[in-house]
Amino acid sequence: MIQSTATVAPDRVADNVAGDDNVHHIPVDQIVASPFNPRSAFDLVELQQLADSLVADGQMQNIVVRPRNRVSRVNDGNGTGKARYELVAGERRWRAAQSAGLASIRAMVVDIDDKKAIELAGMENYQRAQLNDVEQARWFETMIEQAGYTQTKLGEKLGITQAQVSQRLALLKLPNDWQTALITGVIPFTWARELAPWTDHPQILKRLRADIGKDVPGSLNEFQGALEDAIEAMSRPIASGANVQFEYNDGNYRWTTVAFKPTKKQKEELQLITVKRAWGGPQKRALNIELWDKLQAAGEKRRAQRDAAAAAKRDQSGQAAPKGSPAQKRATVKKQTEQLERKIYAWKIRWYQNRIAEHLRSDSVLLPTKLRLLLFFASQQSPEIRNQDLIASASELGAREKKRGKSWYTRADTWGTISGVEQLQLDDLVRSVLERWVQHDTTSYRADLQPPDVEAIADDLGIDIATEWELDRSYLELHTTAQLQALITDWMLVRRGIKGKRTDIIDGILAAKPTTPPKALIKAKGGR
Question: Residue-wise pLDDT tens for the chain (528 aa)?
């Protein structure tokens, strides 16, 4: 909370408007609560303790009231028929007196108007730091709207800056669930302040609440990261032709490029915002996701048409080859050959990954190699992926998983989890995490390992595809019918009369059980 630098003591809050001659014992039922008191939460246990103190020790401090005839608005609170006074300060004492069953309470009667009542009603609680952040904000708002203060003048009175006043007022625009989180201490004021600029976009705050659930992040940086994720999930980039963008789509992440350039009118309809990101600098994004998706689909369709048209121009004259012509057939064969080479290489890398994992599981990897693997693991570019591997492996060994959010982990989470692994299980932890790591997808943008890295690890472990390879259906499924016929020739299986549909050809090759790796596999991308 903001701490006031005012020098007026709380128990002297009304000294400037009344003297001791105006102190009276007033029947409790002749007093009504002030609508200007910003404090709305009263601890029942503390009220009962105060009631017991009033009975045992008497009233130590006056409450402050004002005559009802000075009230310039209708107040239909409880006891209106009997009430002659309205509270200005001391509502806790008045409530405790009611709870204790006291007939009267000592009160200082002050003759003040609404403006002064608003000021004094909040000042006592404010100076005692008894208002939570939202209650402070409500009082600031009342002081400005009903007591005639400006933000600057209010800040001067309270000994704080105009910016601090403005930051408090912004809290009142937060949705109720976030205000409750602030009041109950689930999030501190510094975190709530990060939400204020997004109060006009409730879908972002709703998404953030859903993402973090009950597990609130452990630091401001983590909270800011979760907010940035929510903003990106509920908006789309608009920079035409920009680099690949990380985009949230129906709960899954995918990579794409923006395929359209919006017109001036479309920019207005897209509801553009500027997002300050932790990396990459500021970025303009669209909140109107439905329109963005429509424009993107149209742009991708146009781009596909352009790509198809460009691909059709294959001869030197720039004219598309006639359908079924030798030139088109050659182009088709060339394209299929290139595709097969890429698929064979990807299959080869996956085979190496599986064999490396088998070596790790069998404990045949010697300590020097395992240490090199660990150092390589620690030096890669995706710490959040490595953290997930560590946490998953440690959890398998019985360590308790510590999640801070839906899809992200922190170093503290990771250390807290792996530190729960028993000393005798550390070797199992190393084996498990390396086994997970070496089997990562090597084709994605955020891949830890690249295919040459996998091949280097296989070399270090002495894995040789030429001597260890065994044919399976997954390898044959990479090939077209014509390419399968080429394999039959490569393996000298022509005499077996393997014919029929593609599936029949695959079954026939598997039944023949060739043991020699095909040349295309051995040569794939310069492999062994």
Answer: 443 333 333 344 444 444 456 788 888 888 888 777 767 667 677 778 877 888 877 888 888 888 876 555 544 444 455 678 888 887 788 888 888 888 888 888 888 877 787 777 777 667 665 678 888 888 888 888 888 888 998 888 888 888 888 888 888 888 888 888 888 888 888 888 888 888 888 898 988 888 887 677 778 888 888 888 888 888 888 877 654 454 455 555 556 788 888 999 999 999 998 887 666 667 888 899 899 889 988 988 888 888 777 666 644 444 555 556 677 777 777 888 888 888 888 888 889 988 888 888 888 888 888 888 888 887 776 776 777 777 777 777 776 555 544 444 455 566 666 666 677 677 788 888 788 888 888 877 667 788 888 888 888 888 888 888 888 888 888 888 888 888 888 888 888 888 888 889 999 999 988 888 888 888 776 444
216, 187 Cβ separation under 8 angstroms = yes
Are 131 and 82 in the same domain? yes
State whether the Cα torsion 12-14-16-22 is positive or negative. negative
Name residues whose C-beta falls within 8 Å of residue 106's C-beta, 6 or more positions apart in sequence: 23, 24, 25, 26, 59, 62, 63
Q: Is 277 inside a domain boundary? A: yes
State how many domains the chain has.
4
Q: Are strands 85-89 and 31-32 parallel, antiparallel or unpaired?
A: parallel
- Side-chain-facing half-sphere of 56: CA atoms under 13 Å: 6
Catalytic residue positions, numbered: 91
If you compute the radius of gyration of the chain from its CA atoms, what whole number of angstroms results? 37
Whole-angstrom distance, CA of residue 499 vs CA of residue 507: 10
Please count the other Cβ atoms lying within 10 Å of the Cβ belonging to residue 78: 10
Instruction: Tell whether pTM > 0.85.
Output: no
Is residue 503 in a domain? no
Residues 167, 198 share a domain:
no
In order of 23, 103, 173, 186, the CA distances from 178 in angstroms are 43, 41, 10, 9
Q: CA 359, CA 439: separation in Å to the nearest integer?
A: 12
115 with 146: CB under 8 angstroms? yes
Q: How far apart are CA 234 and CA 108, in angstroms?
A: 55
Residue with tokens 């009041």: 183
Whether residue 202 sits in one domain with residue 155: no
- Give, to the nearest 10 degrees, the angle between helix 451-460 and helix 367-378: 160
Is residue 412 located within the same domain as residue 459? yes
Tell me if 383 is assigned to some domain. Answer: yes
Separation between Cα atoms, residue 155 and residue 468, nearest integer Å: 78
User: Alpha helices, DSSP H only, in 379-501?
Assistant: 383-396, 411-418, 426-438, 451-460, 465-468, 473-476, 481-490
